[in-house]
Amino acid sequence: MKHIRNFCIIAHIDHGKSTLADRLLDSTNSVTAREKQEQLLDNMDLERERGITIKSHAIQMVYTYEGQEYVLNLIDTPGHVDFSYEVSRSIAACEGALLVVDAAQSIQAQTISNLYLALENDLEIIPVLNKIDLPSANPEEVTDDIVDLIGCDRDEIIPASAKNGIGIEDILKAIITRVPAPKGDENAPLRALVFDSVYNPFRGVETYFRVFDGSIKKNQQIKFVATNKAYSADEIGTLKLVQFPKQEIKAGDVGYLITGIKDAREVKVGDTITDAENPTQKAVSGFEDVKPMVFAGIYPVDTEDYEELRACMEKLQLNDASLIFTPESSAALGFGFRCGFLGMLHLEIIQERLEREFDMTVITTVPNVSYHAYSTKEPDEPIIVSNPSDLPDPSTIDHVEEPYIKASIITKADFVGPVMSLCIEKRGEITNQTYLTTERVELTFDMPLAEIVFDFYDRLKTVSKGYASFDYSPIGLRTSKLVKVDVLLNGNTVDALSALIHFDNAYDIGKRMCIKLKELIPRQQFDIPIQAAIGSKIIARETVKALRKDVTAKCYGGDISRKRKLLEKQKKGKKRMRAVGNVEIPQEAFMAVLKLN
Ligand code: GDP
Ligand code: MG
């Protein structure tokens, strides 16, 4: 145990975490030339394309310092707020963290939120000032910022360029000399933390764990504490770029486990693995069942594809336990599923995976959060509303609660005004304003989560000209004056377009929704009235005017291939349309309320 170091890299997005990880692997010769690839650790296609790390992984390196070999376990953490619970579990598996700060960008919102997570878990922090090669780097100022933030000495901060390989040896030495060796009792009953799990279609679920006490042996009967299910440890091992099977993994170390489990939901991140016969009395603390934060309906474009969609969703759930879904039906869209996601990125990923891996074209309805409605008859039992059209008749409701978050925004002093206006428009209440330096300010707000779902990131980027970073964490439910705004097309309510909106904004948003839908709904042979309503009261109205002539008319007499192209283009455009009554609605229209500006 004395010669093991478990550490993670924490950073704001794009500050160089993946690049630094690659460089550490290089310097410790952990990668053969054949395996070498830019940003090795981000191995899902989607991750690579989006340049983000979705799933955390672990990798083992060996480094010799003063004649002694050390095992360094690098535990990678996801870089997006949707996956913050996984970040917290990865951090809990470590004794130390490299805090990477971009020498041009300085401290950003996720630098701080990740640092807090690391400090809560008593991690040794090694600050790394990255990208010192950049002409725009401000090493002196950013060093001051880091000193102010964590109260370290200037010389504890390691200047580096992950890109050019500067400072890498210093970082490796610091990991050995500054990160404490793991502690634990090798003779106690097995106690290991699950910090990640990955679905492998051939081998079943691979569980990544950190042993705190005891050891895990090949073929041992083990048990997961939270699910209380026992399995045989068919294979255990350590992780390099490939897996190295082992007979035993002892306290302090990190490894993988394969038990033949075929359903991702049986392995929960944050759970404790213990011995089935001689279980530990103290499970690793901090276990939580992750709860979806954002909900949306997913419907097949072709109603006949419902059963096929169900089969795809079931397969997706086998390898993504945080996806939940239940069947629902919509008067407008027919049969589909109400799905729960960790956040907006997670939603996009699922939608994209349905298309890429399963070739399913789906309609996704407006995302919403989950509300608690209290009826006047049973004021103690909340009715959980994860679809706005399920909100009971307002006359029977006492009050409605919605989820709130604590939002932290770091921006330049120049943009404090516009950022505040935006947050106030989004029903935020400022709770704190701290000048990190004379130029950089941290603002904290209590805000409804629903407002973040609705187009917040883009607006924040615009009002701050890109100089704002943002992070948030849930703080529970609060009572709000919410009303259901319905949309009627050609006189028929389209349930999939209903949204719960704060009373003060309902008229304005209803109006803007009608205007937006007018832009998005293609003209047809007849006028299509678009109305927004609260209950039976119409609050806004627009009309999509009938087409005047056949769009292909202008091609008659012209060349036939041009006409065919035009028809094909129309057909393609139709792919993501749904006919509701006699009105064709494109996919964008279902998301219209998200982009009202
Ligand atoms: P992550 O989001 O924290 O994983 O950041 P990445 O490692 O993906 O890096 C983000 C961008 O910064 C990439 O374009 C990298 O090539 C670049 N980058 C990372 N480290 C350095 C560095 O030391 N110097 C310079 N100039 N660019 C860097
Ligand atoms: Mg990365």
TrEMBL record:
Cellular-component GO terms for this entry: plasma membrane
Matching InterPro entries: EF-4, EFG_III/V, EFG_V-like, EFTu-like_2, LepA_C_sf, LepA_CTD, LepA_IV, P-loop_NTPase
Swiss-Prot/TrEMBL keywords: Cell membrane, Elongation factor, GTP-binding, Hydrolase, Membrane, Nucleotide-binding, Protein biosynthesis
Domain Tr-type G: residue ranges: 2-183
Species lineage: Bacteria, Pseudomonadati, Bacteroidota, Flavobacteriia, Flavobacteriales
Chemical reaction(s) catalysed: GTP + H2O = GDP + phosphate + H(+)
Binding site for GTP: 14-19, 130-133
Gene3D superfamilies xref list: 3.30.70.240, Elongation factor 4, C-terminal domain, Elongation Factor G (Translational Gtpase), domain 3, P-loop containing nucleotide triphosphate hydrolases, Translation factors
GO BP annotations, alphabetical order: positive regulation of translation
Membrane topology: Peripheral membrane protein
Task of the protein: Required for accurate and efficient protein synthesis under certain stress conditions. May act as a fidelity factor of the translation reaction, by catalyzing a one-codon backward translocation of tRNAs on improperly translocated ribosomes. Back-translocation proceeds from a post-translocation (POST) complex to a pre-translocation (PRE) complex, thus giving elongation factor G a second chance to translocate the tRNAs correctly. Binds to ribosomes in a GTP-dependent manner.
Protein name: Elongation factor 4
Subcellular location, principal: membrane
Cell location: Cell membrane
EC number(s) on file: 3.6.5.n1
HAMAP family: LepA
One of the record's GO molecular function terms: translation elongation factor activity
Family to which the UniProt record says this protein belongs: Belongs to the TRAFAC class translation factor GTPase superfamily. Classic translation factor GTPase family. LepA subfamily.
Broad EC category: hydrolase
Top-level taxonomic group: Bacteria
